[in-house]
UniProtKB/TrEMBL annotation:
It holds the Pfam family PAPS_reduct. This is Adenosine 5'-phosphosulfate reductase. It is found in: Cytoplasm. It catalyses: [thioredoxin]-disulfide + sulfite + AMP + 2 H(+) = adenosine 5'-phosphosulfate + [thioredoxin]-dithiol. One of its GO terms (molecular function) is adenylyl-sulfate reductase (thioredoxin) activity. The active site is at C236. It is an enzyme of class 1 (oxidoreductase).
Amino acid sequence: MNTTRTRHTSRPGADALRRLAEDAGRDLEDAPALEILRWAADTFGPRFCVTSSMEDAVVAHLASRVLPGVDVVFLDTGYHFPETIGTRDAVAAVMDVNVVTLTPRQTVAEQDAEYGPRLHDRDPDLCCALRKVGPLRAGLEKYDAWATGLRRDESPTRANTPVVGWDEKRGKVKVSPIARWTQDDVDRYVDEHGVLTNPLLMDGYPSIGCAPCTRRVSEGEDARAGRWSGRAKTECGLHG
Ligand code: SF4
């Protein structure tokens, strides 16, 4: 493996980060998830974090094996299911990670007062921009690289997800160590390592977001069919 590494004592500029991402995406395409994360930990050290929706803690668990105490960033939109908040709290209590909770500038009540109630029904793109995209951009400022749990098999929009890529929108290296995994791979890892999962996964929700924008899916439906159901929207803008 001839992947470029840098010492994480100095902070590279955007051009250097982009080259790192492009080289690593090519060199690590066939590498196991742990090796991809080890490269990220060695290269970025504390300027690397994992983001988690608390659907499961698979990527957080993998990352903690190569970077104990790794920051796990969770976006608390104010609209989560109680089970999701419970999963976040359990991850913080039992895993060797540092859970970092990001919150929007406004509470739900403050947003309702300014934009009217149920903005998620009338303008979900604006709601996601206010409660997800903006807070994540601000929260990722101190990092050079972030890891996600994106998988190519989740939806057509994710079919070309690189294992390491360049996040143009935020000027960060974006690491997707389980991009090549299938749902069976995830289930096997959860079973083998006793990884925490959101109880809603066993209750008809294969993909879990904010409560007002997530429904159960029926047998045979796409895993993400329950997200913004009935609308053209398929992504919240975090991964676009
Ligand atoms: Fe708002 Fe729904 Fe987006 Fe959550 S998923 S931020 S409730 S529009």
